[in-house]
Design brief:
The protein has 16 helices and 21 strands. The chain is of the alpha/beta class. The protein folds into three domains: 2-43 and 215-289 and 397-451, FAD/NAD(P)-binding domain (3-Layer(bba) Sandwich), CATH 3.50.50; 46-61 and 80-84 and 205-210 and 293-382, Polyamine Oxidase, Chain A, domain 2, CATH 3.90.660; 108-200, Guanine Nucleotide Dissociation Inhibitor, domain 1 (Orthogonal Bundle). The strands form five sheets. Strands 1, 2, 9, 10, 11, 12, 13 and 21 form an eight-stranded mixed sheet that branches. The chain has a seven-stranded mixed sheet with strand order 7-6-16-17-18-15-19. The model has no long low-confidence stretch (mean pLDDT 97). It binds dihydroflavine-adenine dinucleotide.
């Protein structure tokens, strides 16, 4: 067992931990980063699957994500636009396929009006929410006691309008059923992206991708940190007190003045604390859980949908794959579709055997794009639920009532221990931008305390 001393030990080499470590290093503090996996990046993972470069984890960058954009510039990474020319596809409750342009789905005029009104109402409410402290809204407690699906029922009797608006936050973002999280949690999700309209606008929220893959961010940050990043080092015990911390992993033990716990909040309680974390922390982490979504990639010899006049963008709250996009990789002449299967539908997919799983997903894609979608050259399903050091996707959110009750303590340090993760962020919540923001803020707080 290697024993080392540093100013700060960072636990977790995702975008957040590596940003914190880089900022601390810039301020003149010494750091060690302990990472459980045999790679850096956490939920950012770009890999070669059967000859295709695929983003198994996070990939998109939107124009409001200035912390991420600055990091990309600093690291010299280039971006490219998602293909978006042509018509989008919507499948309604009867299975009827319709093409459309813009953001509003081709539904009956009455339903369209209800959708527009709901978006306006949500935008107005979101404008009142500070993403850094949604619990401070005067109606926070009430909004946290009602599920998002129930709240939508109080707004409109139009089921198709509710299903569509629900999908943008439930299947597409928090990746939990709309009955499993509160209206306040939904408003935080939208406020973190600037407005509800931004979430509905695929051209905004899924704007750019990074040449070489988004995992370049953690890989390049880790490269700068060099030998101070220790892989295969899951921290099992954290001793802490007024004089600092000792983080004990399987390979290395680090004594430091401060610790940054840069792990998803659902994994905080996997570590043994000596002494135990305070009551409030032990309670609050029990009220957070990961959403669950399968990210599916299908690579074809050509982007055949483009020749058929389609953009590749497709939505339906009634399909197994509730949203899908052209995800062709920069410079690859082949065509790639990415689709998402969320929450209970994802449970159902994993209950099938491997062949039936593939068949069910490809059939759903064929409903949007035609029979050519049934025969990809490469097919890959992400399985973040089986990843011990993540346990779901995309990120963690509170159960009913949890955000108003515990939110204010989420980011509060405990003695020398600070918390940093996209799942704790306000702006950029559940996104790489939030991970980086948290890393910068956490490092600044430690630098101030350290008097560096
Ligand atoms: P992250 O979970 O990445 O890092 C935590 C690290 O801690 C991991 O490396 C883990 O192994 C390590 N760890 C845990 N316990 C440990 C222990 N005890 N000891 C040592 N190490 C430990 N975002 C976005 O902006 N655009 C997008 O398009 C998407 N899409 C997307 C798709 C999919 C499928 C996923 C799973 C996620 C996304 N996201 C996304 C979300 C985005 O990937 C995510 O918010 C950030 O990468 C999270 O970064 P963090 O550093 O906060 O946590």
């Amino acid at each position: 067992m290697q024993k080392i001393e540093r100013d700060v030990v960072v636990i977790g080499a995702g975008a957040s931990g590596l940003t914190a470590a880089s900022e601390l290093r810039k301020a003149g503090l010494t750091v060690a980063v302990l990472e459980a996996r045999d790679r850096v990046g956490g939920r950012l993972w770009t890999d070669d699957i059967d000859g295709a470069t695929l983003e198994i984890g996070g990939q998109w960058v939107s124009p409001d994500q200035d912390a991420l954009i600055e990091t990309l510039e600093d690291l010299g990474l280039d971006t490219y636009e998602r293909y978006r020319e042509g018509l989008n596809v919507y499948i309604g409750p009867t299975g009827e396929k319709r093409t459309f342009e813009g953001e509003i789905f081709p539904v009956a005029a009455q339903t369209e009006q209800e959708i527009v009104t709901l978006i306006e109402k949500l935008d107005a409410l979101v404008a009142e929410i500070d993403p850094d402290q949604p619990w401070a809204h005067p109606l926070a407690k009430d909004l946290d006691e009602i599920s998002f699906s129930r709240w939508l029922e109080t707004q409109t009797e139009d089921e198709e309008a509710r299903e569509n608006i629900g999908m943008f936050i439930a299947g597409a973002m928090l990746t939990k059923p709309a009955h499993a999280f509160s209206a306040l949690q939904a408003l935080l999700m939208a406020a973190s992206a600037g407005s509800f309209s931004n979430l509905v606008d695929a051209d905004f929220i899924l704007d750019k991708r990074v040449v070489g893959g988004l995992q370049q961010v953690p890989l390049l940050l880790a490269e700068r940190l060099g030998d101070d990043v220790h892989l295969n080092s899951p921290v099992r015990t954290l001793r802490w007190g007024s004089d600092g911390v000792t983080a004990i992993s399987e390979t290395v033990e680090v004594s430091a003045r401060f610790a940054v716990l840069a792990v998803p909040p659902i994994l905080i309680s996997r570590i043994s604390y000596e002494p135990p974390l305070p009551r409030r922390q032990q309670q609050l982490h029990q009220h957070l859980s990961m959403g669950f979504v399968i990210k599916v990639h299908a690579v074809y010899s050509t982007p055949f949908w483009r020749t058929n006049g389609l953009s590749g963008t497709a939505f339906s709250p009634y399909e197994l794959v509730h949203e899908a996009y052209d995800n062709s990789y920069h410079g690859d002449p082949r065509g790639t579709l990415v689709g998402f299967v969320a929450d209970e539908a994802a449970d159902g997919v994993f209950a099938l055997n491997e062949e039936d799983r593939k068949q069910a997903i490809l059939e759903s894609l064929s409903h949007y794009y035609g029979d050519e979608a049934l025969t990809p050259e490469v097919f890959y399903l992400s399985d973040w639920g089986s990843e011990e050091w993540t346990r779901g996707a995309y990120a963690a959110s509170f159960d009913m009532g949890g955000l108003a009750r515990y939110g204010a303590d989420l980011r509060t340090p405990v003695g020398p221990i600070h918390f940093s993760c996209s799942d704790l962020a306000g702006k950029g919540y559940q996104h790489v931008d939030g991970a980086i923001r948290m890393g910068i803020e956490t490092a600044a707080a430690i630098v101030e305390r350290a008097g560096a």
